[in-house]
Design a protein that fits this description.
single chain, mainly alpha, 7 helices, elongated
């Protein structure tokens, strides 16, 4: 409950952060400062604009928390049985390791939540031709799944380009 309450309280600031990044990348000036963000979002989308993409975020958080605690319980109960003194140390690390795996598995919810926060909000990065307009997060989820792009941006060290997809520039321009 505490994690969901924290997500609910901080989500408007997350939306502002995401839109600020998209605005910066697109070199736009729709919003100006925190007061500008608050006023513009409220005028254009009412209070619900601050909670764009909230449902997949809450759903992903809930699944992640459940997975993390369930996996940690299974590892601590069945895999790390024994009276060895290092077992207690290993049990303390199991929560962090299972949290990492749970966050990897629920990353698509974070991705869809972030994309819905900027989709069709008047910024170039969230509108055609750069992004199709979607009416719900489920439509976005289905499109990403169909394209094989559910883990886009998940890795710090490598990026996966879906098959037959070209981004931003033609390869001939790089030669």
């Amino acid at each position: 409950m505490a994690r969901s309450a924290a997500t609910l309280i901080t989500h408007p600031f997350h939306v502002i952060t995401l839109r600020s990044m998209v605005q910066f990348i697109g070199r736009e000036s729709k919003y100006c400062g925190l007061c500008g963000f608050l006023a513009t979002i409220y005028q254009e989308e009412a209070i619900l604009g601050f909670f764009a993409g909230l449902f997949p975020c809450l759903l992903g958080d809930s699944i992640s928390l459940w997975l993390c605690n369930s996996l940690a319980y299974l590892v601590n109960t069945y895999a790390l049985e024994g009276g060895v003194s290092t077992m207690n140390e290993m049990k303390s690390y199991s929560q962090a390791v299972t949290g990492f795996f749970a966050s990897m598995l629920t990353y698509p919810f974070v991705l869809v939540s972030n994309l819905m926060a900027v989709n069709n909000r008047g910024l170039a990065g969230g509108c055609p031709p750069y992004s199709p307009i979607y009416s719900s997060w489920i439509d976005y989820w289905c499109m990403l799944q169909k394209e094989g792009n559910m883990s886009g941006g998940n890795s710090l060290l490598s990026r996966k380009v879906p098959y037959e997809k070209t981004y931003c520039c033609d390869l001939r321009m790089l030669i």
